[in-house]
Amino acid sequence: MRLRWRLAAALTMLPPAGAAAQTIATPPAPAATDERIAVPKDYVQVWADEFDTPGLPDPAKWRYDTSRNREGWWNNELQYYAAGRRENARVEDGHLVIETRKERVDKAADYGGQDYSSAKLFTQGVADWTYGFFEVRAKLACGKGNWPAIWTLGSDAGAGWPRLGEIDIMEHVGQTPGTIHGSVHTKAYNHVAKTQKTAEAQVPDACTAFHTYQLDWTADRILIGVDGRAYMRFDNDHKGDSATWPFDKPQYLILNVAVGGWGADQGIDPAAFPARMEVDYVRVWQKR
Fold first, then answer.
1. Are 116 and 141 in contact (CB under 8 A)?
2. Cβ distance 198 to 25 under 8 Å?
3. HSE-up of 182 (CA within 13 Å, CB side)?
4. What CA–CA distance (Å, rounded) separates 263 from 261?
């Protein structure tokens, strides 16, 4: 999920590890492709959440990121990320629901003055992976101001962003409904340096229908796709340089819906709330 900075920002101002989020698609560094993407035949499922048990998300699989509620979140985001609050994250009718709401959660001890609430779930400390096929079937939260994302981040927090590597499997901003983005960020390729690798695809009913958002990550390349077609490709240059390929180390998965930031370049529509990203399942496969 890319970090959005003002033009005066420089690489020396990059946030600490764990702060990274959604990408920015201007100007794009070409990474577009059009090829098949599917679970390889020699892979086995190693992790999944089918969201079959109603209530709060399974604590054995998910944690909540609330780390910057008091200070305010990166990217000029406007949400308060709640933990253990059913209004913002719950399992119902076989789906994980992450819901943004226009409200002030001012009784929370870490409240930072935000006018919106949401949730950010991640698997760090619970599960991470080096290489694999990832698939998330979801229906996206839409409306101007909403910014849903499905992404991974390097587990080595000490490396700092963007050195630790980031893979954006899906980003969608409400002001451009139906356009999804896939990107990677590394020390050499990132939006702060205007060298990010990114591509986009059109999914006209992303807000009203479920689609499968996919990542096929091997030692040689990264493919990002939707519904069996990859639209973004990033190849390992095999130079052994972590600045261009930090993706030989574990990454963990993140699901969130931000408010503001890149999702609000054209303002926020009050009528867009509440908005929900619904996730039918999350599945991960790796080579036998």
1. no
2. yes
3. 26
4. 5
- Range 242-268 average pLDDT: 94
pLDDT digits (tens, 9 = 90+) for 58-72: 999 999 999 999 999
**Model-level pTM?**
0.91
> Looking at this protein, which amino acid is placed at residue 270?
P
**Distance separating alpha carbons of residues 189 and 161, to the nearest angstrom:** 11
**Cα-to-chain-centroid distance, residue 199:** 15
Q: Where in the sequence numbering do the catalytic residues fall?
A: 166, 171
Residue 27 confidence (pLDDT) above 60: no
Phi and psi at 207, nearest 5°, equal -85, -15
Determine if the peptide bond prior to 30 is cis (ω within 30°): no
Looking at every residue in the chain, the average pLDDT score rounds to 91
With H, G, I as helix, E, B as strand and everything else as coil, classify residue 196: coil
Please choose, from the candidates 111, 90, 88, the residue with its C-alpha nearest in 3D space to the C-alpha of residue 275: 88
Element (H, E) at 95: strand 95-102
Residue type, 191: H
Phi, psi (rounded to 5 degrees) for 233: -135, 135
Question: What is the DSSP secondary-structure string of 233-249?
Answer: EEE---S--TTT--TTS
**Using 50, 70 and 90 to split pLDDT, how confident is the model at 24?**
very low
**Rounded to an integer, what distance in angstroms lies between the CA atom of residue 155 and that of residue 127?**
10
- Residue 22 dihedral angles phi and psi, to the nearest 5°: -30, 150
> Tokens at residue 46, please?
């190693």
Over residues 200-242, the pLDDT tens digits come to 999 999 999 999 999 999 999 999 999 999 999 999 999 999 9
Identify the helix (H) or strand (E) that includes residue 180: strand 179-185
3-class SS at 87? coil
